[in-house]
């Protein structure tokens, strides 16, 4: 069996910032799921509701930007929340091309029940309010850096590849033994 050299330290899964963020996001969503179920919301719907509880009314474009969702995803979420009676859509009186999204009375009333969700998630993090604020600030800074359009720093050129030695025309091509004869 060929020996494998250990991967470079930077290629260990646990050393990857992206994996730490991904796994944490999955864990956070798992915490939210049972807490949001009594409200009849999914996590993405909850995020949309949070933005509207904060701002009252937003254009579709501003809402999409605020919650970092593309237009197609946002339209589907808003339609579902309208069907649930939590949001309403209407054309802007000043710009017929703009759609305004706002809370219904039922959507506004849901905010009170959502406070318990926030408190339970805060408790599940096993961190202080100051620790959570620091983490949120760090993540916002990271997101700003990743979305700023600044190109990644250039890397050092990779080492030159070792040339592959091909057999000459008069040498037989090595063949792999049949599966039944391979060492296990």
Summarize the structure.
With about 180 residues, the chain is mainly α.
How are the secondary structure elements laid out?
Layout: H1 17-36, H2 43-55, E1 57-59, H3 60-67, H4 71-83, E2 87-91, E3 99-103, H5 105-124, H6 129-147
Model description:
With 184 residues, the protein is mainly alpha-helical. The chain has a domain of 128 residues: Arc Repressor Mutant, subunit A (Orthogonal Bundle). The protein contains six helices and three strands. A hairpin with a 7-residue loop joins strand 2 and strand 3. The radius of gyration is 26 Å and the shape is elongated. The model has no long low-confidence stretch (mean pLDDT 87).
Secondary structure: number of strands: 3
Gap between N and C termini: 8 Å
CATH domain class name of the domain at 13-140:
Mainly Alpha
CATH fold title of the domain at 13-140: Arc Repressor Mutant, subunit A
Number of helices: 6
Averaging pLDDT over every residue, what do you get? 87
Assembly form of the protein: single chain
Overall geometric form: elongated
Widest beta sheet: strand line-up: 1-3-2
Largest sheet: 3 strands, antiparallel
Question: What is the CATH superfamily classification of the domain at 13-140?
Answer: Winged helix-like DNA-binding domain superfamily/Winged helix DNA-binding domain
Q: Helicity level, as a percent range? A: 40-55%
Q: What is the second-level CATH architecture of the domain at 13-140?
A: Orthogonal Bundle
User: Which class do the helix and strand fractions yield?
Assistant: mainly alpha
β-strand amount? 5-15%
Q: Order of helices and strands, N to C?
A: HHEHHEEHH
Q: What Rg is obtained from the alpha carbons, in whole angstroms?
A: 26 Å
Low-pLDDT segments: none
